[in-house]
Design a protein that fits this description.
single chain, alpha/beta, Rossmann fold, ten-stranded mixed sheet, four-stranded antiparallel sheet, 8 helices, 14 strands, about 25% helix, globular
Length: about 290
């Protein structure tokens, strides 16, 4: 007899958090509470194993998707549901709390938006933004029963607005969106992938940048590497080249994220500057 889905989801949540080395009971509860299959479209599903190779599930039994694997959302466009343990680690860095307002850029089908909605609870609010119209419509359907979530379709550079406690992106940037940083409330956190080139079309290699507001100063650090789809708006060849140079990629050589300590939104870059853009710069010195 097959295990009840409730039991399968709980085991999955505990496994995902263990792989991510996260010991946070609220996150385990959130992963347990959200039905992953609802955010994947109708089964059977395609599990992306190895170098993005598809492995179809035997049937549409939702138990197949409760694994720490990528699952295709749109194979033609190469879009997937995201690695659960990767997102568990990110949520642990962000620690969304009940009552907070979160913005999720690149929401896809809405699965991790739903987990955010669980974490900020009934008195919090999540704004999901998705560039791909079909995925935005899918996310809107999937999140329709969540009174603390909304879905916006379009370019996040035009749609992110309002004070926020958490801003997190599921797509890679080649510059820090300084306007978003200014939306952070005291203690607010922004977590985005900064990515340059990877050798795969439309996918960038880089690191996750975490920015935390402390009064008028902004602490900043890289909290892990990533390979992720590019942001569909706002990237430029010049900015990508500057970022690649700052990362100092070298083919065939082990790479670790640089040590930075702060994001500056004013003043001229000094000799602690690691990377500068339009109206911002990352420094190796504390704010």
């Amino acid at each position: 007899m097959a295990e009840p889905l409730k039991t399968v989801r709980r085991s999955y949540a505990e496994h995902v958090c263990a792989v991510a080395e996260v010991d946070w009971s609220e996150l385990i509860r959130a992963f347990s509470a959200v039905p992953r299959e609802r955010f994947l479209g109708p089964g059977p599903w395609t599990i992306l194993a190895g170098p993005m190779q598809g492995e179809p599930t035997p049937d549409a039994d939702p138990r197949h998707v409760y694994r720490n694997v990528l699952i295709a959302l749109d194979e033609a466009k190469g879009l997937n549901n995201g690695q659960p343990s990767f997102w568990a680690a990110l949520f642990d860095k962000l620690r969304p709390q009940a009552g907070e307002r979160a913005i999720h850029v690149g929401a896809g089908g809405g699965y991790y938006t739903a987990i955010l909605a669980e974490l900020v609870a009934w008195n919090g609010w999540v704004t999901a933004i998705e560039y791909e119209p079909e995925l935005a419509a899918m996310a809107a359907r999937n999140l329709a029963d969540r009174p603390n979530a909304e879905v916006l379709a379009g370019d996040a550079h035009d749609l992110v607005e309002g004070a926020a406690d958490v801003i997190v992106a599921s797509c890679g940037f080649d510059a820090v969106p300084a306007a978003w940083v200014r939306l952070l409330r005291e203690g607010g956190r922004l977590l985005i992938p900064l990515t340059a080139v990877s050798g795969l079309e439309g996918i960038g290699l880089g690191a996750m940048l975490l920015v935390t507001r402390r009064g008028e100063a902004f602490a900043a650090e890289f909290v892990g590497g990533t390979m992720i789809y590019h942001d569909k708006g706002g990237r430029t060849e010049a900015a990508t080249q500057r970022l690649a140079a700052a990362f100092a990629y070298a083919s065939g050589r082990a790479w670790t994220a640089p040590q930075i300590a702060s994001l500056r939104l004013d003043g001229a870059p000094d000799d602690t500057c690691w990377l500068a853009g339009d109206g911002w710069w990352l420094s190796t010195a504390p704010a």
